[in-house]
Amino acid sequence: MLLLHGHYKLFPRRVAVRAEWCTVCKAPRVAVGTRRLVVLHLFWIPVLPVARVTDWTCSSCGAPPAARLATPRSRTRGILVFAAFLGAVSVGLLVATLLTGRDPLAEGEGRMSEGFAAAATFLVMSGIFAWHALRRRRQAADPGFVEVREAVPPLSGDACPLCGDLMLTRSNPRCPRCQVDILTF
Fold it and tell me: How crowded is residue 80: how many other Cβ atoms within 10 Å of its Cβ?
């Protein structure tokens, strides 16, 4: 049965602004936080609300501020190749077990269930290595990115960076026109 599923991000609303280093513009910019409701769908029918997420975008280019972070491609590629190798070994063990009716790794007469256990072990190991590689791919490896990001001065909270209105209070500044919090840290 074909099962079409996924998620929607519904009801966008601007909630906050902050100073951020944009990797696309290569300059300090104002990032706008948009909160959305994540809803799972089944056959394009919204079924279950899952979470509220805040996505940050650059006010100049519209891209996420960390969109162009470099990743350690060579190490990630090596881990993915090793995971693919383990997956191929597990498929080979499974096919050999089904064709011969016994464990291909056993020297004597191994049972068929032991062959399946070996194939499952290699398959789980390949999944763990692939998960690790994909997790590493998301981590930033840009040298100096953290220092540049920390050097960006925070917003002052005197005026709204979106509309320019003056703020009445400096503690917890919030623009009444734009309905956004101004993050000053």
Answer: 18
53 and 84 in a single domain? The answer is no
Q: Are residues 35 and 62 in the same domain?
A: yes
Indicate the DSSP class of residue 154: P
Distance CA(76)–CA(129), nearest Å, equals: 10
pTM over the 0.90 mark = no
Provide the 3-class DSSP secondary structure of residue 8: strand
User: Which candidate, 19, 11, 46, 5, places its Cα nearest to that of 183?
Assistant: 19
Smallest Cα–Cα separation from 52: which of 65, 69, 76, 36?
A: 36
Are 68 and 24 contacting, i.e. CB atoms less than 8 angstroms apart? Answer: yes
Do 19 and 109 share a domain, yes or no?
no
Beta bridge partners of 13: 35
H or E segment and range at residue 34: strand 27-42
What is the Cα–Cα distance from 85 to 88, expressed in whole angstroms?
5
Q: Report H helices in 103-160.
A: 112-138, 145-150
pLDDT tens per residue, range 121-174 = 888 888 888 888 777 766 545 667 778 888 889 888 888 888 888 887 767 888
31 near 65, Cβ under 8 Å?
A: yes
Domain enclosing residue 131, as ranges? 73-138
Residues making up the chain, counted from first to last: 185
Q: Is the torsion defined by CA of 49, 51, 52, 56 positive or negative?
A: negative
